[in-house]
Amino acid sequence: MKNSTTKLIRIQLAKNRLSPVVKATQIWSFSKWLLVALFVFLMPAICGAEDIYISQTASGGDTGVDSANAHSVAWLNTAGNWGDGADKISAGDTAHLCGTFTGTAGNTMITIPGNGASENYVTILFEADAKLTAPYWGVTGAIALGNHSYIEIDGGTNGVIDATDNGTELTYDQESFGITSNGASNIKIHDLIIENMYVHTFGSEDKGTYYAVAIWGISSGYFGSNIEVYNMTVHDCGTFFAIGGMTSSVSNWKIHDNEVYNFLDGMFINTYSNYTIDGLEIYNNHLYDCSMGGAAPPYHLHTDGMQLAAYPNGNYTNLKIYNNEFSGIGWEFPDGQKTTTGFIFLDGHGGTSFSGVQIYNNLFHPSCSPQALTPSGGFIHMQNPNASGNIHIYNNTFVGCWNEGDGGNGIAARGIEGNATGIIIKNNIFKNMSMICYATGTPVSESTNNLYIGSRSDVVYYNSAYRSWSYWTDTLGFGANSLYNTDPSLDANYKPDASDDPVVGAGTNLSGTFSTDKDGESRLQSAAWTLGCYELTQRPRSPNNFRTLP
């Protein structure tokens, strides 16, 4: 630091052509400036956040300075150990979880008693191989956030919450929850494995499949605003992310980059009683291989990828669902009744309204063997969404199972107590589908630049009858710039692989709405787009001997 300071002063002197007195004054002023800058830079280190280590029981000197001298989890759960001061959990601090925390059946291991602060979250960090484990966890979860704020749950490299003995053929058949909230806001939950909350045997009638949730909003309050859940791996549970209802309007929820499988209902979000969820974004998630279907009613429920609902009269505004992948989801009973309503289900029972909805860059490819696992409604299913426009369905790739006898409906819009209007469908690929759209009423306002290839001459059910492609295009005027019975020429990953593939350049440019594809590759800003969720990333190259002439 001394050499650096001397060098800076020399540079300052070299720039001066003034008198020695002025130079000395400038050196002193510059040194004061440098000291202030260093103080500001070093302030976090001087007055910085603490790292406090926690194990199930106290170890060593019980000082919390490292894993060998860790405080107990009971210490972490005590409100008196949260607040300002040394050896207390306060804003900006990190509580390091060390080793295995073994709970009893129906237990809660960690109960958060305090708050962080804006830009200074309290972090609960799983050290390498840290685990919270119990035969099953209680209704307040392995970790109970309560109604606290500015808390971050960081799974680290391989942190785990699991249940070891809860399921169809196991000792217990109980509700089991991973992380719960009772009104918490400004929460981050990420990089954590939550597994085996309930291990279900397909076809059984046990109810625990539903009431086993990785992340759950309980009682009154549920979750507040500014919630982010990402980089999670969740499997064998009833639901990954569930909200049973709201007691206030909230905003800015982001659920992204999660891998979820062997579930009943991937996400279930239910606003309530005229409250609004604004700015919910669900993106970059992969939901697949639902194993919970097949149970007798009412426990089979929907087995949907995600169900967004409100009972009654809730609202969703500025909703975005994009860059997700849905595969292998869905089951049916031996009598043929399907359990999946939709991979994306906008459920308008009870007066839910949706406005400003954007659904784009999603990939849908359900399992087709040994049986077609397509939804009973639509891959995107809207039931009485009471939406008066602004539902935009752009650049999705739908791949059905018509070779197995059931292609499935790409988009379904059914009005029971009401109807949807103003649905806009552009730049989508419908491959091996039964129909593009199955709708009651006339909810579509615009449909252009789509590709359809499937098994039926009647490509839509619209305005109370099955309709042909020519009716869709010529009578209704919905087929402009679209391709019919044209193979999209996609590779094994559902991507175009050559510049002469039919989908390349067949789309309309929507760069005013979004600018990248499912992989985050840039879409063209001033030219026609590729249909579906993937843009062609192989661009024609200039010849090796290409030169610009003067």
3D architecture notes:
The protein is mainly beta and about 550 residues long. The chain has a 24-stranded mixed β-sheet that branches. It has a 14-stranded parallel β-sheet with strand order 2-1-3-6-9-12-15-18-21-25-29-32-35-38. The relative contact order is 0.05.
What key phrases describe this protein's structure?
14-stranded parallel β-sheet, disordered N terminus, elongated, 9% helix, disordered C terminus, 550 residues, mainly beta, 24-stranded mixed β-sheet
Question: Secondary-structure map with pairings?
Answer:
Blueprint: H1 2-15, H2 20-46, E1 51-55, E2 71-72, H3 73-76, E3 94-97, E4 100-102, E5 110-111, E6 122-126, E7 131-134, E8 143-144, E9 149-154, E10 160-163, E11 176-181, E12 185-190, E13 193-195, E14 212-217, E15 227-230, E16 233-243, E17 250-251, E18 253-256, E19 259-271, E20 276-278, E21 281-283, E22 286-288, E23 306-310, E24 315-317, E25 320-322, E26 325-327, E27 344-347, E28 353-355, E29 357-360, E30 363-365, E31 380-383, E32 388-394, E33 397-399, E34 409-414, E35 421-426, E36 429-433, E37 435-439, E38 444-448, E39 451-454, E40 458-462, E41 465-468, H4 469-475, E42 483-484
Helix pairs in contact: 1-2
